[in-house]
């Protein structure tokens, strides 16, 4: 890497380390954690939904599997959620294949609906399993106060550090994919699957790989959520709302790009809080905002906000070049 | 025991006809324009609220509001297609209209929550005793709204089929749906066709919503539940097939009603989706539909 | 003003301002965090009713001079809509504690919200007075900061249903042999159903139908069709408002005949239940109620003022829901008076020592207020009421039964009613 890039990276690390010291109010810190968390989820979704262009509206399935697997193993066998997280990821990978194999044959909207349907079925199964999985009332993660080996701590800084690492991993995954041949294939599939097939791209294998990667990352997010909120329920972790929200954050930010999902989260999560505060917690205010923004973005800049930023940046460099300042 | 089964079956057919009507508009839009409108359920919710307000503030009978709601939704459909969807649709004319899909997702979220703010979260039912009136045939009970729903749904479906087969506009719509380029060569203005078919689709949805209001209470998120059913029915029945949507609706209604007799009611949602997935996987063209390219 | 003059002026202002806190502190309002569902849930209409009552109580308390031991400090409700969502409950509880710095919380009506949210309060060691959440485990966790004065675990509600059925069977000689349990499948419904199953079985009553439904389900017709086919003698319904209304309408429409339909308070005592379903549709239906009603409870000027002001404010009559909410505020006031300062630990200790017997508050709710070692008040009992002609009247236990009405058991078949 160039020295400039290394410097930027170090600067970013320093900035991130300082944040919890500056924003030490637990409530503000929790907003920050939530924002980074959604950026992570959006980046995970981006692999299959953005780069590969397969609009999955059922990612909550993996999130829920992650949350429920680690929590159930913890509650029933005392297994550390760190290990449960890996089990959940493996299960989610399996589920991604199970859902993907039949569904990837379908196009666009059919695929979206099929993923939605799969998640609803999962949700209903969990809701009906009162003994094993707690049914619709959900599961409480047993309070252990300060137990970092069990993925729990009373201080938010613990979760902040973890979510930042998660973000870095997701960023790297996206970065690596985008620069690799695999990423090229995915982009080709996204733009025109038939053409890609004609050129010999093994579309099914590529999509499945992307789906599995995306599912594994999302599943880890589910475990994080369970250990952070300490309470999970089918509605929350398998709900369509979550699936849609993840996808929307990524799309508004700019799907298929590296920083788009991060931008989307950075904008939408705080905006949601502001909307809630401004309207005095009026129900639906935040979601109305999401819907409106999504419509505006799709109408005027379908490539997301990141594309708008790039255009502005390009115009500035062009202007500078003209004036001869650079 | 058997009277329970018969009751459940007939209930399912009655509600199925209304479900089919809900799906009809979607099938039309999907078949003609190949667009997926994820806000379909939300428009139905709006239709239900309009019907509700018509009953509450204008003192109308739940059946009398139907024409008003249909008209209102017709206009809404026209405007939505012309100003909201068309501009995006044009941009991605050849590829799959994912942009429209995502746009309508935003519209769905927006409308649901808008009405949450306008109408509040509580369930509401239309005033008056008519919705509680019951007709008895031996051991069987049918609420007036069930009977009305079935009759009106069948009627409207029939009218729509006749319209599409018999009138000039109807034929233009079908032609555009089959082959847009060929149709435009023949001088058919595809924009106008899209606007009209979207409007008709929503008008039919308006009728369905008004009928549903007499059966089921309305809240801002009612559209989610029934909107998804509409998609399942459209796939079951085959894209663009009006008859398919109708029969698909009946099937779903019966499955829902009969399924609940043998499984806990909490499984009925999953059952419908399982059927959906099954059809998608084994017969994606639907049970009655034509092969989709 | 010239520079010098304005400098002196602002210095003077500052001096006055600095000396003010001394006086201001004495009357600093006591913030009370209040979580309640006001929207987005089948329980929203109940939440709104309770909220109005809580606000009324705070108004009355403040008008009467606030917390005298704190220099007349006024109570200030910091209200949050939980939307029936446990996650909102958790995050908002935390926000109220860490940002708004409330020294005490009340709420949140629904068990599935109250249960996890009170855990947050316990973590931060801030006391929480539970209003009507009935999940048993809320006070079974060994928590020190969670108090429940106006509600007993859901099992108590279920006990009343079964005890009433047994009593009515004995008294009239018309015995019930089979029962159906219909319940919403979150915490509250599940808890009630669990107790009912065992108690019915112990009473020799067979359970021929046992099904839950997801709350806010729009179409419950298939459930009622199935219920009708099971032909139960007793139908027990455990629902919040929206579902209670729907189920009752369907039972009436489909002429589901039984010896009795018994609701479990909540939705069945909600102010919109009878108006929405209609008098004909609700006639002769029973329900448990945590409050015996006007005749037994409105016997003091305190209670009368509550009743009159509540009716004037909301155009509805109080029920168990609003009465409990009103009482919780006054129980809190009592504890604050004894605590003397708006600090969590002091309030907590004062709450633990609460002893109310034969005073305005206990007469209003119908039972004494005191806490056992789990901070649970065990004095409350559920009565059973029957709806006739659009009004509720108490039928059980006998000593609280209305004197001018007789119970109808079994209830007439739908086809025979006019």
Describe this structure in words.
The complex is a heterotrimer of chains A (about 325), B (about 290) and C (about 425). By secondary structure, chain A is mostly helical. Chain A has helices at about 5-20, 25-50, 60-75, 80-105, 110-125, 130-135, 155-180, 180-190, 195-200, 205-230, 235, 240-255, 260-280, 285-300, 305-325, and strands at about 140, 230. Chain B has one domain (about 1-220). Chain B has helices at about 1-35, 40-60, 65-90, 100-120, 145-165, 170-180, 180-185, 190-215, 220-235, 240-260, 270-280; strands at about 135, 140-145. A two-stranded antiparallel sheet of chain B has the order 1-2. In chain B, helix 3 (about 65-90) crosses helix 8 (about 190-215) and helix 9 crosses helix 10 (about 240-260). The longest helix of chain B has about 30 residues, at about 1-35. Chain B is globular, with a radius of gyration of 19 Å. Chain C has a 7-stranded mixed sheet, sandwiched between helices. A 5-stranded parallel sheet of chain C has the order 2-1-3-4-5, with helices on both faces. In chain C, helix 2 (about 45-65) packs across helix 12, helix 2 packs across helix 13 and helix 5 (about 155-170) runs parallel beside helix 6. The chains are: A mainly alpha (about 325), B mainly alpha (about 290), C alpha/beta (about 425). Chains B and C meet through helix 1 and helix 10 of B and strand 7, helix 7 and helix 8 of C.
List key phrases describing it.
heterotrimer; A: 326 residues; B: mainly alpha
Q: How helix-rich are the residues of chain B, as a percent range? A: over 70%
Helix content percent band of chain A: over 70%
Spatial separation of the terminal alpha carbons of chain B: 47 Å
Q: Tell the overall outline of chain B.
A: globular
Radius of gyration of chain A, CA atoms, in whole angstroms: 20 Å
SSE class of chain B: mainly alpha
The topology string of helices and strands of chain A comes to HHHHHHEHHHHEHHHHH
**Topology, number of strands of chain B:** 2
Query: In percent terms, what proportion of residues of chain B is strand?
Result: under 5%
Tell me the major beta sheet of chain B: 2 strands, antiparallel
Overall, the morphology of chain A is globular
Q: For the residues shown, what is the average pLDDT of chain B?
A: 86
Q: Main β-sheet of chain A: number of strands, strand sense, barrel status?
A: 2 strands, antiparallel
| Helical run tally of chain B | 11
